[in-house]
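Standup, Tuesday
Yesterday: got the pipeline producing structure tokens again.
Today: sanity-check two examples.
Blockers: none.

Example 1:
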Amino acid sequence: QITTLINHKDKPKRSDKTLQAIQRVGQAVNVAVGRFVTVGEAIANENHELKKEMSVACIEARRAGETIAQLTDVASLDHPESDSHITIFTDKTGVVKAARLLLSSVTKVLVLADRIVIKQIITSRNKVLATMEQLEKVSSFQEFVQIFSQFGNEMVEFAHLTGDRQNDLKDEKKKARMAASRAVLEKCTMMLLTASKTCLRHPDCESARINKDGVFHRMRLALEQVIEIVTDSRPNGENEMAPVSIYSGIKEFKNKVEGLRENLYFLSKENLSTMLEVILEHTEDFTDSAYTSHEHREHILELSKQAKMELEQLVSVWMQAQNHKTKDLMEDLEVAILKTCQCMNELKREVHSAATSLAADLLKYHTDHMVLKALKITGVEGNLEAVAEYTCKLSEQKEQLVEMCRLLRHVSGTEPLEITCIHAEDTFQVTGPQIISAAETLALHPSSKIAKENLEVFCEAWESQLSDMSMLLREINDVFEGRRGEKRVYLSLPRPGKHNANLKALKPVKLDTEEQAKIAKLGLELHLLTSDVDSETEKWEDQENEIVQRGQGMSSMAYSMYLFTRGEGLLKTTQDLFHQAEIFATEGTKLASALHAFSDQVHDDDKPLLLLEAEKLISMCKQLQITAKASVQGKSATFTKVDACILKTRNVMTLLCQLLPLCCKLLRKNKAGNGCLKPAPPWREDRIRTGTNAHTPERRAETFGIKSLENHVTNMTFLESK
């Protein structure tokens, strides 16, 4: 909008339409700045150490926004009395100065807010670490239950903060690392619970202690990595040395080779030879692997030899071309470049085939989880000899899967997928020995229910990682075949509707970039409406009022739908969106019921208007539900349905923006009489039923699987009381 103002053409004749458009843009900038600054000032009030800096930046931004609004107030230019009025037409430099001040002050506010966010995450991590230390030292079950309840709450807070941060990260590599660390914390939280309970029940059991120590150690490493990503630093100032994959090596090598067409002197032959040597060293991971087939090994060795020969030929022609740049030599150079690149493409294809065929075979072979089942059975029987036999088999399986991850990393094709492969390798490396120690504990205490539950948790983590590997393999193949770009949905994040039996048969669809662009304007309108609804709910004195809480819940869901239009947030597929729209409509209907109950308490003069608005809301919600439930087939029809759902959600939110101030006004008006509402139904229970959370909205980004954690804590409390 600022660019539009500064770049507008100074025409001698200005139509009313042009003047009105300029004024609208100026006002829109000022309103947007006002909203932005309001948030900045709220942050400043909560963080005293940066309050002064933040307040100054907010004042500057507000002043700049007001200046832009004044300079674009051009609607009255045609009137003689406004000749002395300074506008964008008489003082364009004023707009430029105001725009510069605005952008610099807004940037300053963002940087200060970012520092606060980083501090919040570090503080939250420190609280989690302190509570973990207490958990490690507890000796009684009752004390453990109390401290673990606190630990659960702190992990929820940490999940929200890091989820927000992950959404904000622009670097896909950092996003993938953050997703991996958060996945470790999610799974380890449950492992920590059962491993600690087992240790408390069997304090003299060495294998139980080893099992528990392994979980604590892994959680600390994951917490440390989150802080490294957030602060963009490494311990002791060391640089991160990521291993180079064959794919990235070949890509860089080909770029250098093809660059010889433009410049014969920009690199040395030694440089090019070294790059090829590094690539061929990495192919030894395939040729030396016991799991690579004889056929693949022979092909890789043959292509490696051919690559060396092609490079020798290329260097020979290249050196000649540097001395004598004739037409024939340049043609020979082109042929040598093409042959070298073709050879590297064939090598790339061969290692991809070797890695993915091995992965497909291993995942198919281990899909029945026979070793895990056998460990559970022999553990319950107390058969130490059989447990030892099956732990050896699990160790073999672990080595196979670790090798598979290493080879897949070489052919993953993108940095985020590379990081996912490294995360998978670490998971198998760590979880394997933990399953073994859990199985040994169960074999030593075969009647222990908690030891059995502990083994189940670790086995589930193993099975979950195997399931994720199947999805990862599909993504790697998609990238290789050009069906996917750099951006991806990370496997480790929880997905809504994942465990809903009704959704299993439906094929999930995502919006492509073009569709996101088409729906962006509608999504932005929805975003602005959620801000309006939030500001209206904040005006209510009674935040526990059912109308407020329903409104907050609906705003939260609408915000998650806005994030979907940007390809972000918790809703990943169109099916997720339609499911969210249904819940949103249901919540709207419940709000209408609350409005009917409220109408009984208002004066007769005001009642018809309130009831009319409530009926409108019911009608709109019914229409949205019908649209969300309608069955469609084909890409075009699906997009039309998405568009309709977002549009109808926007209409409901527009009505909500009118309803909330009306109700607030009527409540204040009736407070002198019988104006307080009947007690609202328990909102917490309602939130669980509808799948929303008004106080921790979905805009707080993806969180851990906290619900199951809360259930565990509840069950523990119940057992303790028994």
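Example 2:
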Amino acid sequence: QIHSQHNAEAPNLEQAFHRMAQTEPNLDHDISWFLLPSYWAKTVVALISFFCFANSYDGDFVFDDSEAIINNKDLRAETPLGDLWHHDFWGSKLSSNTSHKSYRPLTVLTFRINYLFAGGFYPIGFHVINIILHCTISVLMVDVFSILLGGLQFSNKGRRLNLAPKTSLLAALLFAVHPVHTECVAGIVGRADLLCALFFLLSFLGYCKAFRENKEGHNFSIFWVLVSVILGAIAMLCKEQGITILGLNAVFDALVINKLNVLELIQKLLHKDKSLENAGLLRKGLLFRLTLLMSGGASILYIRWRIMGTGPPAFTEVDNPASFEDSLFVRAINYNYYYSLNAWLLLCPWWLCFDWSMGCIPLIKSVTDWRIIALASLWFCLIGLICQALCSEDSHKRRILTLGLGFLIIPFLPASNLFFRVGFVIAERVIYLPSIGYCILFTYGFSLLSKQAKKKKILAVAVLGILLVNVTRCALRSSQWRSEEQLFRSALSVCPLNAKVHYNVGKNLADKGNQSAAIKYYREAVRLNPKYVHAMNNLGNILKERNELQEAEELLSLAVQIQPDFAAAWMNLGIVQNSLRRFEEAEQSYWTAIKHRKKYPDCYYNLGRLYADLNRHIDALNAWRNATVLKPEHSLAWNNMIILLDNTGNLAQAEAVGREALELIPNDHSLMFSLANVLGKSQKYKESEALFLKAIKANPNAASYHGNLAVLYHRWGNLDLAKKHYEVSLKLDPLAPGTKENYNLLRRKLEQLQKKG
């Protein structure tokens, strides 16, 4: 469907397109840079962007990948696809009070496809897709920058012309190799930003196609405007920033298509000038397109609001401390300081960190703080650019600066804290789209310098040097994202005051079994943030395992005092109290944990252990049964039920529970072992033998498996096999309880048989 409205007093848009290249200066004339055909330019950009991040292809799942991918049930085949539309990015229900309200179902869908094709959680496939997405986006940038820097013009055959091949190539290269993009490319959860950027750019290019010349000579195509709105909606379903493309399309329409002079328009509005129509605002085509964009954007936001619910996401003070300050002045000062740091990351992306919260950036609370200089510098530059964008007599300069500022600022607005509180201080991933504006401004500045410079080649070499430095930094940074150990340690020098950095280094060390080093980092995390309950919980756990129970209890008690609904800390406190033989307090702690987390199988398991220690066998069995109902694959709970029933002489019931467990977890060798013991006592020797042998095949170095199989053969009368497995058991564990005594009994029996023979 084609819209064919014309303005009698305004020149035809088609004619305006053809005049654009003739009347406006061309940036390419002023710079010394490579001139390549479009195909080769895109190939170069693709190869260089691939080279920057290729070494991250075989990286691990790191940082947020665990929660968004490994622990996200929405990726598994058993979860209905429909659930993706009712869950947030992390797999929680959007209606939940704990949901972050990050609604990105299309991104989660791509994770699910990755998981299904790979047949499990293998990170290579996830990383490769991210790298391909960034390369694709970088290639699209060549077309986008050619429009933003050179204008929009079509040939007689309706093919878009690239009026700025040199500058568009330079800007695309700047974008492709910017180190701040490493988090989006090398971190798998950054796919949300990549997919959002892909459809963001497709929406923009689709909007440009609406003005392609056609045989009828009509002005624009409603079809492509609507396609642009739909692509904007898809971008938002990948990440929330995607909706901002509709605003940018409107800015582009006004500045490039209608050549609107914003300053002139403001002046006429202030003076109530009746010639507003000549200014281009009231052209019916523009108003109609803006109406489509606005109504489309409003509809998308309304639907998003209805799905999300009316409640805002719940963030804590450590996530974004400035937003919790009572003073409006303090909030405003710190927000602006954060903006200046984001700008600095674009200008000098050398100090990069996976997390900037928890004291990494101390709050500014006084105007005497020297950091005020940073935000003053930011606004000095922004005001200067805005003045040039509004007041310059050069229409080409006005257009490029306004578009550069628009692409720099508008995509950043959802992360600015202006409309709602966000859950971070600085996040490098949210600068992925705003970096488009930075690349426009950088390239335009380079063209202005080239125009004034006598030795243009020296300037070109300097820019080439910047590109090479960025490529090196990208390769170095993406290698740091390959493992959690490298990633977390790289942050220690950037954010030494960040408690979360020390916490993550400690957690990584603890996972590798280095408890002594982990304790050091956990203690530092608690020192930097005395209310860091997760660090207290993990430190308490390690101290509990090292039998330092008094300090463990103090830490865990403090954690639940600070955060009374911290279920994991309540459970761990119960374990410590149980070890201290304060059983009533332990039981109370377990039930408090279950109160705050209804579905808590591990807590029911530990509660069952407490009841077993108190000889409350029925209560223990009920607790373990609850654990297996909530988590059918809870092997420890099944095992304890079998062992307790076995020890209390309930062999038939123990056998039934064991068979039920093995149906649910058929490859668990510990369950095979426990059930084999029960069957042996029930004189079902053949079936018991089969299970013992199967368990040994799965875990051949378990001394107890060989020892108990030997006991079975001993009872069964198969003495040679009994002797063989006793010897294997003793070889694996010479101190195995009871095995040596049984072996000596068997040897004496064999000696007696030999004498009789």
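Quick observation on example 2: The two ends are 104 Å apart (CA to CA). Confidence is low (pLDDT under 50) at residues 1-23, 214-218.
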